[in-house]
Automatic annotation (TrEMBL):
<dbReference type="Pfam" id="PF01565">
    <property type="entry name" value="FAD_binding_4"/>
</dbReference>
<keyword id="KW-0732">Signal</keyword>
<dbReference type="GO" id="GO:0071949">
    <property type="term" value="F:FAD binding"/>
</dbReference>
<protein>
    <recommendedName>
        <fullName>FAD-binding PCMH-type domain-containing protein</fullName>
    </recommendedName>
</protein>
<dbReference type="InterPro" id="IPR006094">
    <property type="entry name" value="Oxid_FAD_bind_N"/>
</dbReference>
<comment type="similarity">
    <text>Belongs to the oxygen-dependent FAD-linked oxidoreductase family.</text>
</comment>
<dbReference type="InterPro" id="IPR016169">
    <property type="entry name" value="FAD-bd_PCMH_sub2"/>
</dbReference>
<dbReference type="InterPro" id="IPR036318">
    <property type="entry name" value="FAD-bd_PCMH-like_sf"/>
</dbReference>
<dbReference type="InterPro" id="IPR016167">
    <property type="entry name" value="FAD-bd_PCMH_sub1"/>
</dbReference>
<feature type="domain" description="FAD-binding PCMH-type">
    <location>
        <begin position="55"/>
        <end position="233"/>
    </location>
</feature>
<dbReference type="InterPro" id="IPR012951">
    <property type="entry name" value="BBE"/>
</dbReference>
<dbReference type="GO" id="GO:0016491">
    <property type="term" value="F:oxidoreductase activity"/>
</dbReference>
<dbReference type="InterPro" id="IPR016166">
    <property type="entry name" value="FAD-bd_PCMH"/>
</dbReference>
<dbReference type="Pfam" id="PF08031">
    <property type="entry name" value="BBE"/>
</dbReference>
<keyword id="KW-0274">FAD</keyword>
<keyword id="KW-0325">Glycoprotein</keyword>
<keyword id="KW-0285">Flavoprotein</keyword>
Length: 507
């Protein structure tokens, strides 16, 4: 790690002294001089470009909390000794903001929640309490072990942490049938900026609204646990991957897909993974192949799907199958480090009007230039049905009615952590896409965090609403102002702050 020379050592010493006085056992406090510090810091860093960079600073200590009182102690001591606290659940933040700060003067500690990951399922009631440190894989597995007829609509990758994921919305293969993860949160417990533990009643409806997708990670407090309503899943689901090359009609099928996929019945989700030389139509249907085939032939004949494309399985088996491959087992979704760690840069867009065929052809010409620089994928997720039917102000996540699909652009590269050429290329593509995607604002998904959209500017000790609007409106549209108003009410001193946290708006 890069030691930060400007850190006031007295302040950090008194912060750590305060933690021990508040009964956090010393073996849960990992300071920069502890032998455990580096391995714990790195344990959930998913993007190696953040392992070694002089452009940011690392925490002065990491608290591996085991109980809620440890989180409360970290916040109370942090306030008292001017050390900010960042929560880390699964460490997947695309900009690494759960464990690094860009401003090298920033004094902060990380509260790592990976030891707080219990899942209590009440199958009779169809609900569960899940702690933020659980991964999605652990959540799905626990639900399935209690009641195979229940599931939960959240992300595709099993190593993603519940805490960060729910803080920004959370979507995956069940989004068209059931919407987002946060559409199913019925209660939560949160440690606020005073160190108090609040449930839904105690926090009030405004704050409860804000943490369901508007946290943007660490703006309002640290969410300890979430009470969620589970959803029914059928005994059999059918998963398929149909791949086409651009030379064999993939671009024409993709052009048609834009009109069809967002309007299909809610039981079917067909997403697209576009790569320079291959387009994969990856789908999940909540039912059998016999039911799916006539539906696909009627609604999407251009895909020319055949029986051999169908893979019938239980819903829980679809989780490893889709993310880890056909040889992976259900037990593999419990492995917290199953994803490979490569340098990536992620951006996102929302599309409200279909993109013409000739533009897609140009996009693929651009994609084919990238092969020398690294690798590139576009994950294109269709909206419509349930995810789009919920009012845009029901939760802070605003990308609802009228959205056809979300695009995630992922640029991968090896070697040079700066990835200069690959990044320049991905910026050029993002610029090229501008006229073809949503406008005023050009929308982006908060969970696909992108600091190129803008960073907070601190004015008189408080993050400025004026500057934050630039990125905030893109993640939250009209909900951004309400989020900032809630922030002013619950954390007027802007204690929970990062490069893209919600700033307070004082009326
Ligand atoms: P991490 O611990 O890094 O936290 C992210 C942010 O939330 C940070 O700002 C952090 O401080 C804050 N935070 C964490 N825990 C908190 C808590 N308990 N209370 C308050 N704030 C907290 N998204 C999606 O919708 N669908 C998908 O399928 C996928 N798939 C996917 C795959 C892979 C490989 C990656 C790297 C990412 C995704 N994502 C995704 C995006 C993912 O939802 C997003 O990065 C989440 O913020 C990750 O949550 P973690 O807890 O893992 O991150």
């Amino acid at each position: 790690y890069i030691p930060n020379p400007t850190i006031a050592h007295d302040s950090s010493k008194s912060f750590i002294h305060c933690l021990t006085k508040k009964s956090i056992p010393p073996w849960l406090i990992h300071t920069r001089s502890s032998s455990s510090y580096t391995s714990i810091l790195k344990s959930s860093i998913r993007n190696p470009k953040f392992l070694n960079t002089a452009a940011s600073t690392t925490p002065l200590c990491i608290v591996t909390a085991k109980k809620t009182s440890h989180i409360q102690a970290a916040v109370v001591c942090g306030r008292r000794h001017r050390v900010r606290v960042r929560a880390r659940s699964g460490g997947h933040d695309y900009e690494g903001l759960s464990y690094r700060a860009e401003d090298r003067r920033e004094q902060f500690a990380v509260v790592d929640l990976s030891e707080m990951r219990s899942v209590r399922v009440d199958a009779a009631d169809g609900t569960a309490w899940v702690q933020s440190g659980a991964t999605l894989g652990e959540l799905y597995h626990a639900i399935w072990s209690h009641e195979p007829g229940l599931g939960f609509p959240a992300g595709v990758c099993p190593t993603v942490g519940v805490g960060g994921h729910f803080s920004g919305g959370g979507f995956g293969m069940l989004q068209r049938k059931h919407g987002l993860a946060v559409d199913h949160v019925v209660n939560a417990t949160l440690v606020d900026a005073r160190g108090d533990l609040l449930d839904r009643d105690a926090m009030g409806e405004d704050l409860f609204w804000a943490i369901r997708g508007g946290g943007g990670g660490g703006s309002f407090g640290i969410v300890v646990s979430w009470h969620i309503k589970l959803v029914p899943v059928p005994a059999t689901v059918t998963v398929f991957d149909v791949a086409r090359t651009p030379e064999h009609g993939a671009i024409d099928v993709l052009t048609k897909w834009q009109e069809i996929a967002p309007r299909m019945p809610e039981d079917i989700m067909v997403r697209v993974i576009a790569e320079p030389h291959r387009v994969t139509f990856e789908g999940m249907y909540l039912g059998t192949c016999d039911e799916l085939l006539p539906l696909m032939h009627h609604q999407f004949p251009d895909l020319a799907m055949i029986r051999g494309d169908c893979n019938e399985m239980r819903w829980i088996e679809s989780i490893p199958y889709i993310h880890l491959g056909s040889n992976a087992t259900v037990a593999d979704i419990l492995n917290r480090s199953s994803i490979s760690r490569v340098n990536t840069k992620n951006r996102s867009d929302y599309v409200r009007n279909t993109i013409p065929n000739h533009i897609w052809k140009k996009i693929f010409t651009m994609l084919q230039q990238v092969t020398n620089l690294g690798e590139f994928q576009m994950y294109i997720d269709p909206y419509g049905a349930k995810i789009s039917s919920i009012h845009e102000s029901a939760t802070p996540f605003p990308h609802r009615e009228g959205v056809l699909y979300n695009i995630q652009y992922i640029t991968y590269w090896n070697g040079d952590a700066n990835g200069t050429l690959a990044l320049k290329w991905s910026r050029d593509l993002y610029k090229f896409m501008e006229p073809h995607v949503s406008k005023n604002p050009r929308e982006a998904y908060a969970n696909y965090r992108d600091l190129d959209l803008g960073r907070n500017k601190v004015v008189n000790g408080i993050s400025s609403y004026h500057y934050a609007r630039v990125w905030g409106k893109r993640y939250f549209r009209h909900n951004f102002e309400r989020l900032a108003t809630v922030k002013a009410k619950v954390d007027p001193d802007d204690y929970f702050r990062n490069e893209q946290s919600i700033p307070p708006l004082f009326k």
